[in-house]
């Protein structure tokens, strides 16, 4: 499995083009699986379940994608983890795969003494902040010929005001949080723990 870490922000469209090509290569057994950590320049993206009413600021430009999920924001201070994982090499159980991704994020946050949890009704990872549930990580991927790709975003130090222009992931009654609301942790330390936890948990 290749672990790729981009130091400079990657344009969203370029990242997706790279992912699509890697999916093809992995499905043809011409390349290895991938876990890719990066940041994007500011961009709003929507998945296949997108609803136009979730756009509050009509001046927002939206990039449509083939991932699951609805609308979200990516940008500076937010850590993106893309992956191309061959589920056929493991148990062909999509629910199990989702749980592996969720648990990897939860364990990483726990490593920094931040308590978080998953929610079956509202996919993603959540924290309690002043007794209110807030999303700290968004998950959105698709599966093609048992190859899982796209990934998740984890809010680290980003400006949360960017979410005010949309209804993030179509959820209007909960908030958005970031790691810096709880603790100042470097991006490199987060990446290192995520890498360890993902590799360990993907051995199932």
How would you describe the overall organization of this protein?
The protein is of the alpha/beta class. It is 24% helix and 29% strand. The two termini are 15 Å apart.
**Nearest-angstrom radius of gyration?**
16 Å
Second-tier CATH architecture = 2-Layer Sandwich
Alpha carbon gap, first and last residue: 15 Å
Low-confidence stretches: none
Q: What is this entry, summarized?
A:
The chain is built from 3 helices and 11 strands. The chain is an alpha/beta fold. It has a single domain (2-201), classed as Bira Bifunctional Protein, Domain 2 (BirA Bifunctional Protein, domain 2, 2-Layer Sandwich), CATH 3.30.930.
Strand-helix topology:
Elements: E1 2-5, H1 12-27, E2 34-38, E3 43-46, E4 62-64, E5 71-74, E6 78-86, H2 94-111, E7 117-118, E8 125-129, E9 132-144, E10 147-155, E11 175-176, H3 187-201
Parallel strand pairs: 1-2, 3-4, 9-11
Antiparallel strand pairs: 2-6, 3-5, 6-10, 7-8, 8-9, 9-10
Features:
204 residues, alpha/beta, BirA Bifunctional Protein, domain 2, 8-stranded mixed beta sheet, 3-stranded mixed beta sheet, 29% strand
